[in-house]
Amino acid sequence: MHEGTLLLLFVAGDAPRTTVAVENLRRALAEFEDRKFQLEVVDVYENAGRAIADRVFVTPTLLAPGTSRRLVGDLSENSQLRYFLQSVEIH
After folding, report:
1. CB within 8 A of 42, min separation 6: which ones?
2. Where along the chain do its domains lie?
3. What is the pLDDT of residue 71?
4. CA–CA separation, 88 vs 59, rounded Å?
5. What is the tens place of the pLDDT at every residue in 17-68?
6. pTM, rounded to two decimals
7. How far apart are alpha carbons 10 and 15 in whole angstroms?
8. CB proximity list for 82: less than 8 A, separation 6 or greater
9. Cβ(44)–Cβ(14) below 8 Å
10. Which CATH code, of 3.40.30.10, 3.30.70.240, 3.30.930.10, 3.40.190.290, is assigned to 5-87?
11. Secondary structure of 33-76 in the HEC alphabet?
12. Smallest Cα–Cα separation from 10: which of 38, 35, 36, 41?
């Protein structure tokens, strides 16, 4: 059982965009410390089946399971990332 809202970040190995996306997301999550988020990073090289099951075909992709919310790219657009995090309801 997850505590708080689960976020999945699908990445492709240790590619430069992976590093940037993880850093951008962690920085943004620190601004939302009053909300409970649980981040799970899924490497599509190691878990391609999960990516296919979640219909992730481009990396990096951030999604909130159980919703249609997803954000594609290195998460450097701070306003889009903040909007995404604000719009995800805590389950």
Report:
1. 8, 9, 10, 11, 50, 51
2. 5-87
3. 96
4. 20
5. 999 999 999 999 998 877 889 999 999 999 999 999 999 999 999 999 888 8
6. 0.89
7. 12
8. 28, 31
9. no
10. 3.40.30.10
11. CCCCEEEEEEECCCCHHHHHHCCCCCCCEEECCCCCCEEECCCC
12. 41
Type of residue at 73: G
Identity of residue 27: R
For residue 41, the one-letter residue type is V
Encoded tokens for 80:
């889009």
Any idea which residue has 């954000």 for tokens? 71
Given the structure tokens 């701070």, which residue do they identify?
78
